[in-house]
């Protein structure tokens, strides 16, 4: 059976950057610092793309929670081969309070809404090293999980996952739908080239929906009549228009003008 996969991606300070602590010791300096996709999330995206190349996965949806800059991370995933992106808009002032539990609730709600049967996540983020989101997402969905995966094989309606554990390697078999977290040796991610990011592979396509997080609650985003557009590469995206919570403003932003079609998505702003 063809799977629909959802991959969570996180924007973090680039692994090659020397992190500097703020003078007041309240955190690290992020302004003007290079950010990129969390390396473990990148491995999860690559695994989803490889499964799609094997005709095991039919569609890849990437999800990122955070400020507007997270759309750059989504574009990188699209350039690697993902089909659609969803940006859950969390203002920068609230982002530091966004923990694994809140992210898990968002991903679980979106997995149900999108009717996916495989969730792929990095085993941890290199900024907080929590290693919690995958496990909590599986618990919220009541799905089996294969964590620290160094090899994933789809066999009909089940997955065989080779896990890296302290004592060596452990092989488990889980039924689909399932949650898998990617370890370092699962694969070697492909390079997302600049032409792919700037062209039809990613850059000319914005995330097909942007939603506002409401105090960590599950996002509610009923689908409007689908508005479809095609990029030069032939990809298609859907337009969602979330309801505007009380006291918030919404504006339509034009993200694609290629002479033939225009894509709009809704950005929800919190009250001042």
Overview of the structural elements:
The protein has 272 residues and is of the alpha/beta class. It has a single domain (3-269), classed as HUPs (Rossmann fold, 3-Layer(aba) Sandwich), CATH 3.40.50.620. 22% of the residues lie in helices and 33% in strands. The protein has six helices and 15 strands. It has helices spanning 39-53, 70-80, 92-95, 100-114, 133-141, 194-198; strands at 3-8, 11-13, 35-37, 57-66, 84-89, 118-122, 145-155, 158-165, 168-175, 178-182, 209-212, 229-230, 236-237, 249-257, 262-269. It has a nine-stranded mixed sheet, with helices on both faces. A two-stranded antiparallel sheet has the order 2-3. A two-stranded antiparallel sheet has the order 12-13. A hairpin with a 2-residue loop joins β7 and β8 (158-165). The protein is globular and about 55 Å long. The termini are far apart. The model is unreliable at 213-242 and 250-272 (pLDDT under 50).
